[in-house]
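In this section we walk through a basic example: taking a raw amino acid sequence and producing a predicted 3D structure, encoded as discrete structure tokens. The instruction is simple. Fold the sequence below.
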Amino acid sequence: MRPSVRVLAARDLEEAVDVCALDPVAHAFVSSRLVGGLLGEAGHAEVWGYHEASELRSLLWVGANMVPVEACADATDAFTARARRTNRRSSSVFGPREDVLRLWAGLEGSWGPARELRANQPLMVCDEAVVEPDPRVRRTRPDELDTLFPASVAMFTEEIGYSPLGLDGGAGYRAGVAEMVGLGRSFVRLDRGPDGRPEVVFKAELGAVTGAVAQIQGVWVAPHRRGEGIAAPAVAAVVEAVRRDLGARSSLYVNDYNTRAVAVYERVGFYHHGSFATVLL
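The resulting token sequence is shown next.
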């Protein structure tokens, strides 16, 4: 049978999860969405599958983000050809570096130019923190959403380069932050501010959670508190919560030019697993 690409359905779930399991760290994002029951659900992202001789070999998550999984050269060519025939709905492409760069090389002519290409992002993993966790870091409570939200906006703006508030005044982004809090995936350290009210000095979320891996994202320290050594113990607290409560390893990816962040993560006990790339559109 000739190689082919088709949109996967719920009946393909087991095979799709098996493909992600070839590298649980690199494919945590897509794996978490699959086990969350989103495959084939109306209104959610599509998953394209590349088959050789009726065997599922590669995946492409296609939604607000486009994410390749085990995308060999032939699969990437097939995914690219299909993507060029459809309306673009993704605002970024991210995932394993070689897969993303190969995919983007085929899409840039019709989708480009990129707003930013982050071509080398170390993918790191930690089994157990080697620094003392900060006991003040804990899961965010629902009643703290109003305190957390401005810090989340500041983190997003600093990392992505524009505000997430957009045309809806931030309603969509706030709903996403609230969802993380409700799921117990938002972590925060609150200190007493100059006005006597609690202020966020550290925040992070678990953006993807599988049985084996929890991917940490949105790590942020308040600018006026940077340089105080807050980050490493705070991240260690998140790593230990993941290990204790989920029985999983922690992973994250970081821009290679952010050498300070890379050094913090290495101090916590993270080691390099591979490389990601991100195309911001």
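Looking at the output, two observations stand out. The first helix runs from residue 13 to 20. The first strand starts at residue 4 and ends at 7. In the next section we compare this with other chains.
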